[in-house]
Give the backbone structure.
Amino acid sequence: MVEANSQRIVPVVLCGGTGSRLWPLSREGYPKQFWPLVSTGTTMLQDTVGRAAGAGFAAPIVVCNEAHRFMVAEQLQAAGVGNPTIVLEPVARNSAPAIAAAALLAHEADPNAVLWLMAADAAISDNAALARALELAAAAARAGRIVAFGMQPTAPETGYGYIETGAAISGMDGVSEIARFVEKPDAATAATFLADGRHLWNSGMFVATAATLLAELERLAPELLAAVRAAVADATRDLDFVRLAVESFTRAPDISIDYAVMEKTAHAAVVPASIGWSDVGSWSALWEISPQDEQGNATIGPVELLDAKNCYVRSEGMLTTVVGLENVVTVVTDDAVLVMHRDRSQDVKTLLTQLKKSGRKEATEHRRSFRPWGHYEGLIQGDRFQVKKISVKPGAKLSLQKHFHRAEHWVVVNGTAIVERDAERILLRENESVYLPLGCVHRMENPGMIPLTLIEVQSGAYLGEDDIVRFEDTYGRT
């Protein structure tokens, strides 16, 4: 549950995006916030919560898609985050309902709690400047303002919304009124904004007290707040998660906090900041913030270049070579390759729509699928058979289950497994195997201290993941 302490800032991390413009790496099943796109060894979610760690901050509230709950919990644990509140959205409803839910939960513990609202998938390079801006914003929030972070523009960017600054607010150094919000402009208008010095990029980060946010939601979006209030009141709690009630939350309008509150409230303010911010919304944006060689190339993974300039080349495993190209993005995963001019980065979303219409599962799913116990990936699929590699974390176990249409053969290649097969309990070591006939009730667990890796061979008339009947599950799945 949210900690009560008005002097500490409560980070509220919105973790529900899909990052569609960063396909083929970012997909619905494993979006960009769960990848180490900017830092080495830490994901974007971990970078985000890392900025809000220390004595000045309470434990975070993280709002995410229910399907990503175990990834969120695991990454927060790996980052050393203690006692987070993980709120599960049963359906996607944009930022305003998510923020309303977080504000209601924080308000239960402390109505005066200062909330720092932010997306899980932005990059910030100057944390010292961020801390200074946050201090100004928190002071204004305690005085009743809802404060936006306005980023100093460095280019005539057409992919961002803008904030036009108004007069300075008396008694609040570094904080200004907001004259208006401006939608994503065309190139000529963006160039004018860059030159006039009055317009800032809208970062989507806000600071306000829970009481102020809820009062403005009550006044400006009462139907939304009523739906979310009911969803929180009827929420259930299991493991580390707060599950918002489905029926109530579904009634909430699909609307951003900008439209629901910020563009209408008289309490809006902005703190201009230069913190090295990027929303990492496209491959071109990622190229801009990535380390580059003397030819302007940014490379990640096994990559070799010859006479290439200003390229972004990323490989998740396969040797990738580029010869004689300029201003090109090349991204290689184990099941898809993207090659395009950097100027067409915004068109990846259109391409993704085309792939979905064609029924390509690569549009939304990776070959590797993550589960609370570990992950699996498909290796070979043929007529009536399929081969997978399965990795089970130390101490984890799969559900007790059976299948109606397939039999399975498990071969341990690393680690130790305990397998339940009907009334039997079998210990398997490396190079040992077990056969699971169709219809048998079975389960596998890793009792060891190292990851368990095995090869699974499935055979049968139907091999879909929905051919499963669960009798018992450690992770509350059905």
